[in-house]
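S.,

As promised, the adenosine-5'-diphosphate run. Input:
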Amino acid sequence: MNNSSILESPIEYLKGVGPLKGDMLRKELNIHTFGDLLNHFPLRHIDRTQINFIADINSNTDFIQVRGHIDEWQVLGVGRAKRLVAQLKDRTGNLELVWFQGANWIEKLLERRLEWLVYGKVSFFNNKPQMSHPEMEIAADINAEGKPFLEPIYPTTEKLKARGLNGRQIGKLVYNLLPQISLKDLPENIPLYFVDTLKLTPRLKAYGDIHYPPSQEYYQQALRRLKFEELFIAQIRHNITRIGRNRHSKGILFDSVGDLFNTFYEKYLPFTLTGAQKRVLKEIRQDTARGHQMNRLLQGDVGSGKTIVALLAMLLAADNGYQSCMMAPTEILAQQHFQGLSELLKDLPVEIRILTGSTKVKARRQILKELEEGEVQMVVGTHAVIEDKVKFRNLGLAIVDEQHRFGVAQRAKLWSKAAIPPHVLVMTATPIPRTLAMTAYGDLDYSVMDELPPGRQPITTIHRTDIHRMKVMEFVRTEIDKGRQIYVIYPLIEESEKMSYEDLMQGYEQVKTYFPEHKYKISMVHGRQPVEQKEENMRRFVSGETEIMVSTTVIEVGVNVPNASVMIIESSEKFGLSQLHQLRGRVGRGTEKSYCILLTGQKLSGDARERIKIMCATNDGFKIAEKDLELRGPGEIEGTRQSGALNFKLASLINDREMLEAAKLYAERLIEDDENIEKQENVPLKNYLLSIKGKTAWSKIS
Ligand code: ADP
Ligand code: MG
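Predicted complex:
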């Protein structure tokens, strides 16, 4: 297309803008073109479509527009209390208008003795309605019926306001822009059969109505349409990415379930799988048997049993003659996995190794050789596993544990390890609300394990304030004396946060006074320690040499100490919900009754109170994640912070869940029916995608 759209015109060419304001709009609001302004949506609207009578005003009146004459006014008070008070009269009553500034200027206006249209917020003073600093317009200039549309008010900045572009003045610019825009600039981009079925406002009209709607009703319809468009296009793009990947990545075929898997399943599986585990396993089997690469995100709440699912998948790979690797975020966790898996596999003819930063040179050389020659089928480790030096004979499956932040770059590294990219399973215990997962990870397939193995004792969570610390410690002592281990957690130490470091040290001293060293052994772990020291302190706790772990949040991820049955979280009001839930997941992993005690100060903010309340009320990670999303908004949820996918202008992942589900459904339906988006009825969509090319993954399919 060479007849470029007016939407691309530089903003200073718009009537009422010019070079100076143009510059400000670019700097302050990132508005460069007519199109950018069109996509700068109003914050709210002022309803001046109605003209009321003064007698209509009652104690519920908020903003109102009335029409009348002003015959009397006077200046009252002196100094700061100086004000201009006027009486607006219509045939039903009187309304007092007040100005604290600009009295001279207003008086000049009033002297013209015209009929005024007055708009503002009503307040009551001695039971009498009053309006201060109302907006005034000459009634004769305005349609007698009031304005034909709601007036938009836009987001703006202090600097723009100073230059004559306040929230309302930006509206004047949009008002100048709208008549210039035609269907050619904003062609429909949602296939008409969806527009019809869903009763969506057509695109061009929706853009008009979101800025200058004839009524609230029209505004709501426009909003609904444009939100749906945002969500739908995002889902279409996810589908294109996924399909592109499937088509272009030949996947390794795991087409047989063989001896290793079957023998393990029948003879060595230490428990029956939960329904959720079976379901996920089935999904993995289907994924890996299609000849496409698997890219699956597995979300399972803490303790839901992801490891065994991973192991079974690794056995499946081995049965088909492929190697697999499993990556953990820390050395400790890698060790734990290695020990656990080795134990489970000890009677099977599979070789498994561990490879981490601390693997000794000689052993490392040996392992690298075995991997390259294919003598070893499985390797567990840290990121050391994907270093360039590590070569596999035929890597078929990579499992990434506890880090949904495992990025694109790291994935690419994996791909370079094999001619055909290995299947990837990313496991996380940080539940992500469904809406978020659908948008942030919409291009991945994902599974949810929302069921805990049977027989788990739910963790009892209680809230205590500081003054009860003594009692809490006494309770903890009885638990230790029964042979249990405990955690005491302090808020994260950041390099800069000297305070929290001191808190931790003080806390450590305090714990020691309750649990004297000659009787009790304490490990302390924090982020300022050298790695080796941290790991050593951790190891001593894991092995049971110490009974008490005083720590910052560094132990957050994955550690499994089934004998630890109590967790005390100090200053728990300082933690976010997801983090509290993650931490709590460190207890309740054994057969003993477990406790999580949330200590806080006396005074709590509303949000903190809410968080503590939820924690005490439920152990369900998904419920907690939803609540977290509600309290903090999507931008702040762990692991998705950088995701551009969440930058919707209009749609909200909290309030528009149903619409998101619908958008997903419709997008999938379309792609299923017309993978290349080439059918006649989908041409509008295709054209739109081409017009935003570069921002899409479109190139992969066309
Ligand atoms: P997570 O999902 O947090 O990684 P794990 O895989 O570490 O959970 O499992 C937690 C504990 O539950 C382990 O001790 C594991 O052996 C046990 N477990 C896993 N699946 C089952 C099951 N189906 N029945 C009973 N116990 C199970
Ligand atoms: Mg785990």
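Residues 271, 273-274, 277, 300, 302-308, 429, 453, 560, 589 surround adenosine-5'-diphosphate (ligand 1) (CB under 6 Å). Confidence is low (pLDDT under 50) at residues 637-645, 695-702.

- D.
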